[in-house]
Amino acid sequence: MNTRPKGAEKFMINTSDWARQAKILKEKYSQVTDKDLILEAGRDEELLSRLQRRLSRNRDGIIEILKSMEPSAPVQQAATL
Fold it and tell me: Which of 3, 31, 40, 51 could form a disulfide with 45 if both were Cys (CB 3.0 to 4.6 A apart)?
């Protein structure tokens, strides 16, 4: 089931870091339950929808929260010639 609004960008949750992100979400937003944070393969949009309802935020707001919790990409040094 695709719950993504028509024209909305596809967003993939970082599954390799999801346990850490889920823990942070529960600590920061006490109304979030374990059931809200269940991430099943290929069902990212359903998780986003649950968080939207629970946190009373729109899809973009939830994506912004999740992106802010992602680990920073390592800084790459420019090659010297």
Answer: 3
Q: Give me 33's structure tokens.
A: 């339950």
User: What is the average pLDDT score of the chain?
Assistant: 84
Residue 42 gets the label, from left (phi > 0), alpha (psi -120 to 50) or beta, of: left
Give the ranges where 1-81 is alpha helix by DSSP (H): 18-28, 44-55, 59-69
Instruction: Tell me the fold of 15-69.
Output: Protein Yjbj; Chain: A; (1.10.1470)
Under a CB-based contact definition with an 8 Å cutoff, are residues 49 and 3 in contact?
yes
Q: Mind listing the pLDDT tens digit for each residue in 2-39? A: 555 565 677 888 888 899 999 999 999 999 999 999 99
Name the percent of the chain in helix, strand, coil, to the closest 5: 50, 0, 50
Domain boundaries, the chain: 15-69
> CA–CA separation, 32 vs 10, rounded Å?
23
